[in-house]
Amino acid sequence: DLGGITHQTVAGFMATGSSGGSMNYDLGDSILAIRLVDGTGKVHVLSKNDADPSKFFAAGVSMGLLGIVTQVTFQCEDAYHIMGSESITTLEGAEMSVYGSGSADQPSYEDFLLNTPLSNGDRNPRLAGYSRMMWWPQHNVQRIVNWKAHRMIASDYNTDTGTKEHFKRRPYIEAGFRITPEVLRGLPDSIVILLLGIIE
Fold first, then answer.
1. Range of the domain at 30
2. 145 CB contacts (<8 Å, ≥6 apart)?
3. Which residue stretches of 83-186 are H helix?
4. Do the beta carbons of residue 59 and residue 36 sit within 8 Å?
5. Domain annotation covers residue 2
6. Origin, by domain of life (predicted)?
7. pTM of the predicted model, to two decimals?
8. Among 26, 46, 84, 137, who pairs with 56 as Cys (CB 3.0-4.6 Å)?
9. Of all helices (H) and strands (E), which one includes residue 22?
């Protein structure tokens, strides 16, 4: 599933057993068959439905050691949109308890990633269907950058997003993406430190 990570190749994603930033949606679950050529030149077509699917599953984490993947067959699904947000906080102020078992105010990291639906079937807006977390534990930095998103449901669509059929795309752009090194060099140090989120 590429809802959480879109800047990845199929071969790189597959050969490393990546999960795509989600515990709910896995690109590997969508792979039906893998065609590869081994070191002797023999072509192998591996499938989940083989009598012994162990080679199929091994190819999904092989780092290319079983051969060169020449074709991957996917089970496609209907198109969907995601919406999300990013926050920069201290470890204590993070939306999730990175090390602990969680609390009413701060779910465990596992619960945060699983995004268990609420009792009425709605998604829990405090949790993530997709997540990327970067943590800088260094002294005087101690920050967590957390991006979270979810697949949009009917109630998420509004005049800003457009309808599901006429979605108004707003791509994710990381802070500083358009700031060139020349611009950064011209800024005072205090501004650069503030932009990087190092001081409060």
1. 10-74
2. 86, 87, 88, 133, 134, 135, 197
3. 109-114, 181-185
4. yes
5. no
6. Eukaryota
7. 0.65
8. 46
9. none
